[in-house]
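User: structure tokens for this one?
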Amino acid sequence: MDGLQSTIKLNNGVEMPRFGLGVWKSNNHTARDSVAAALRDGYHAIDTAKQYGNERGTGAGIKLGLQQAGLKRSDIFVTTKLYNGDQGNYDKVAKAFEGQLKDLGLDYVDLYLMHWPVDATYIESYQAMERLQKQGKIRAIGVSNFDNDRLAKLLESAEIVPAVNQMEFNPTNQEKKILQFDQSHNVQMTAWSPLGGGRSLTNPMIDKLAKKYDRSAAQIILRWEWQRGIVTVIKSAHEKRIIDNSHIFDFKLSDEDVQTINQLDQGERGLWYNDFKWHNPNGEFGNSVAQWDDTNEQL
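Assistant:
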């Protein structure tokens, strides 16, 4: 049955929840509070990254949320990502990963993604991630923001096929060629920015469908992604919205309406994807951890 505990089997047999909370652009205190709220409200998947600057807050939220929800660590699925500035040889990646585990307050993570394919280092970095998975502190490894050329090159040398490719995916940016390539190699597409900001949420057709089904625009989009088989990471700092976003399991879009949304693709990537300096690990957006005013405060 569809629901927040529904999972999809990754290519290594690990079960991953299909719907989770992300914490991008959240400071440590907001991450703590939203993660705890999500776990209280039935979410079983949490997605963070070193580059977000809030792994400590996320870890505090996991600890608090598990207590409040009466859950065990093994009941939830935690994803974090290899920071661009930590890419390189095994020793560098392993040291960074251990630091991330410490910040999260965890003994292992369920999924470790390479955040960006920094051209000079992503092959070597992925090989280091493979070694870490074999050591048992990571249940699955994958990538994020990989186009087809880079993923194809990675697959030439990979011993472990990435379990996931996390991409921007929403009605106006559906990454059709990347999705097709991922599916052909048994790599699960996961959506970040699943609502597409104003481009998707304010689309007249989405609004029309929201009225038809008596749902919010966000719920229409999230249900569409669910029916497309996309794992979704949705960010919110407000508990009411965290709850509302999860109310997509008591209705279903018709096949015709799914196809209608499929036609909204404009191939327009938002946010800062196009600004990344692929060849330069120290590009403007490529190698910076967000620093928040509360970074050093007690959580």
